[in-house]
Amino acid sequence: MSNKECLIFQLIAILFLVAEITSKFEFTNVMCTSLDKEFGDFEHCYLKSVNRSYKYVSVKYNLLKSPVTKIKVNLAMFKRFNGYRPFMYNVTVDACRFLKNRKSSPVINFWFNVIENYTNFNHLCPFNHDISLEKLPVETVNFQVTDVLPFPEGDYLIETNWIAYDIKRAELKFYGTIS
């Protein structure tokens, strides 16, 4: 094998190794805040690490005044640069309208694809039951933010504000890192 062929082989090997490097998402924290405890409150809100490879998030919000027929959701994404700074998205949608036509908001639909199999917030309005997100595994989020739409490495905050009847009722913050 000549030096030229050896060099070409080494370059192909290096390119193959670089192509195999992938990012990985990890949850670091979840925080839930009820802003109107007469309207509803969180029964639980936690991040559980079962072992080194299996982590999940569970949240349950008890609605105390139902049925709810008018809900808006604000989703904002932040990246840490000397504190958390706005990054890419800050979108508010009418949740009832979005659930009728998921194509109406591609950004919200991107994130809804992450949670839809783990939540009971996946039907048309009204909502006359507690809202839950149960055992959302880190692998599902990892697939969405590294394979479907790759995000750059760093620390992130995804903040959702839940607004019912034009009053902010609850706030959820999901912290994570992509390395």
TrEMBL record:
Keywords: Signal. InterPro entries: DUF1091. Residues 1-23 form the signal peptide. The gene is LOC139353163. Pfam families: DUF1091 (PF06477). It comes from the Eukaryota. This is MD-2-related lipid-recognition domain-containing protein.
